[in-house]
Amino acid sequence: MEKQRVIDYDLNLALAKAAQKASVKVYVLISTGMASSSSRAPYLKMKGELEDAVSELDFEKVVILRPGLLVGDREDSRPPEYAVRIIALGLSKISKSYFFDTWANPADEVGKAAVLAGLKCLDGTAPGGKVWTMGISEIVRLGRTEWKQ
Fold first, then answer.
1. Catalytic residue flag (residue 27)
2. Range of the domain at 24
3. Residue 61 a catalytic site member
4. Per the domain annotation, does 70 fall within a domain?
5. What is the full DSSP assignment across the chain?
6. pLDDT in tens, the chain (149 residues)
7. Three-state secondary structure readout of 14-33
8. Which residue out of 27, 47, 61, 120 is catalytically annotated?
């Protein structure tokens, strides 16, 4: 893994281990679409390995969100990523459900979906099993449709 990816992995795993040590019951991890520990793409591989490592920790429930491209205001931005976000926002004006919701997610909706998923785990209304992995459509459903302020 390149240096930044190693730092991201180590930092995220350390955070999960600290939460486990503090007896947190539900851990919510925001990963990325197509994450897989067997991927040839370094970023997707790192995210998949992180998902695997967090899933093995002793939480009652682990929620893994796999959003598409995150769009919204950001403090840091790599130029290629910024360009793709601008394209995604432009396409959302044409057809939000077709061009946008299938491969990009507003960051605030991902956050809302993460909170709601954690609450569903605590109140027993989440899907069964230890790990609940959700993709873009489920993130949109929870973060936009089901979210109540």
1. no
2. 3-136
3. no
4. yes
5. --HHHHHHHHHHHHHHHHHHHTT-SEEEEE--TT--TT-SSHHHHHHHHHHHHHHTSS-SEEEEE--SEEES--S---HHHHHHHHHHHHHHHH-IIIIITTTEEEHHHHHHHHHHHHHHHHHT-S-SSSEEEE-HHHHHIIIIII---
6. 477 767 889 999 999 999 999 999 999 999 999 999 999 999 899 999 999 999 999 999 999 999 988 876 666 655 665 666 666 666 666 665 555 677 778 889 999 999 999 999 999 999 999 999 999 999 999 999 898 86
7. HHHHHHHHCCCCEEEEECCC
8. 47
Domain membership flag for residue 148? no
Give the CATH number for residue 75: 3.40.50.720
Instruction: Give me the catalytic one of 3, 9, 25, 43.
Output: 43
State the total domains in the chain.
1
Q: Phi and psi (nearest 5°) for 65? A: -100, 130
